[in-house]
Amino acid sequence: MNSQRHRRGQVAEVFRHRFHDRPTLWCRAPGRVDLMGSHTDYNLGYVLTLPIGCDTWIAARPRTDRSVRLYTMNLGAESGFSLDRIAPDSQQRWNNYVRGVAQVLQADGFKLTGFDGVIHSTVPLSSGLSSSAALECVTATVFEALGGWKLDSVRKAVLCQRAENQFVGVNCGVLDQYTSCAGQEGCALLLDCRDLSSRPVKLAPGIGVVICDMRSKRELAGSEYGRRRADCKEGARRLGVKALREISPAEFYRRAGELPSGVAKRCQFIIEESERVLDLAAALQHFDRAAIRRLTAESFDGARDLYEISVPAMQTMVQAMMQAPGAMGARQAGAGFGGCMVAFVEEAQVKNFAAAVREAYFTSIRIKPEIYPVAAAAGAGTIT
């Protein structure tokens, strides 16, 4: 509570310095980590996702001239635009996530109010924890509160996804925005990306979730993401289905020979990964150590060998994680190619786990990782 109060005081002081006034509205939206389900969202499969306490805030005050003026504390940068003339910002790309949300909301018929805003985020940038989705969702929440209208969480997520797809130009699935908007405090979400339904999954007492940020630059994530998505689309086309979700593992194994070898590898990972989501949800609810270890290992191995989204630092990190005290399972998080990984750890051993991982990883590649436990946080909303 004291850290939150301190953070609020810092943001308020920056707002006063930049805009010579006090904010009248505070909103937040969380980042997320996928506990299981890499790249399954755009294949309409299942994802087990956790909204985390790392979040993005906007402190705002409404304006009367339909202008939006922003300052981000994380980057030390400012930008502004008019709600009457929204165009991409080629110089400061972070601002396009805000502009894209504004454009999509207005195109959908919502009346927007301009505002001055200070952005502060504790979601690590470019780490696979959805800092961009958190910014999109908190932006939508600000416009929602200032405009006096209300979106349900699923529609808000879809509109924010549309902003990233159409305005920012990133052809992402809905996972990140859905988690940030629909998160429930104390629970993971088992998301069905085909119909955008979800159910809460409460982890058994004694299971801790720990994020390990490798602090290594993510390599080829943008272009390779597009290639993986194209391979999946090609596989679904050749198998005669709309999305890989519609193919069971048994049917895929019978028909894998119909696909080019590279496409078959991508499809195999997605189909098996979506099944692992359901199995891990059950294992985490029942504290099934053996299943947690097996499923996370299969996910990591598949990401490395079939989907090929691994880099050497990820192999180094997973070894450090699995050799640390209390480790039950570890795997990649986000799109891969670096960024963060996630571990399931005995809660009583979290501190010892973190210390051991830091030492082992640094000894191997001379980079200091960021290790921190996370808990399930509520979805996007106002801060009282």
Q: Any idea what the radius of gyration is? A: 21 Å
Described by strand count, sense and barrel closure, the largest sheet is:
8 strands, mixed
User: Could you state the order of secondary-structure elements as H and E?
Assistant: HEEEEHEHHHEEEHHHHHEEHEE
Structural category: alpha+beta
Structure annotation, total helices: 11
Protein architecture, described:
The structure is a single chain. This protein is α+β, with helices and mostly antiparallel strands and 384 residues long. It has 2 domains: 2-202, Ribosomal Protein S5, domain 2 (2-Layer Sandwich), CATH 3.30.230; 207-374, GHMP kinase, C-terminal domain (Alpha-Beta Plaits, 2-Layer Sandwich). The strands form 2 sheets. Strands 1, 2, 3, 4, 5, 6, 7 and 12 form an 8-stranded mixed β-sheet that branches. The chain contains 11 helices and 12 strands. Helix 2 (94-107) crosses helix 4 (153-168). 44% of the residues lie in helices and 22% in strands. The chain has helices at 2-19, 94-107, 131-147, 153-168, 175-182, 221-239, 249-255, 261-285, 289-305, 312-322, 350-365; strands spanning 25-36, 46-62, 67-72, 77-82, 115-121, 188-192, 197-201, 207-213, 327-332, 340-346, 370-374, 381-382.
